[in-house]
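Sample pair:
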Amino acid sequence: MTAPITRAEAEDLLFREALLIDRQRFAQWLELFTPDVEFWMPAWRDEATTTEDPDRELSLIYYKGRRNLEDRVMRLTSGLSVASLPLPRVVHQVTNVLVLEADQDAATVSAAFTCHRFDVRMNRTDCFFGRYEYQLVRQDGAWLIARKKITLLNDTVPTVVDINSI
């Protein structure tokens, strides 16, 4: 029998995810996700509540399946996106990582984040911050991200926000 994920293992996965985004190593970043991943950033319904159903309510970002994330990465890196060419420089800080529930094959993990972004084209610096909620699963001995929910706390976005800025 395999042991549940430790906080150190969860931190390693989340820190690795942040570093891969920061270094624009998108192919390796995508490998951290399950094929059926849900990648979701809900909108705010009012000052205290976010939307709850990405199929029926507004979301700031919603991708169901790694294939959709792969498409977003292709658009981001190919120049087909207003948010690309050149891509902004980003650095993510992931903190307060907690394993909320875990067994040998699945875990619920919470974390806080800050992302500093420098847009070279506009000579502009922005900072985004919020909370992450992850569902992790063990597949073939490795922990992967099956669900990532991003609650962006400062959701008044000055320009464009994309998957690499949150």
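DSSP finds three helices and six strands in the chain.
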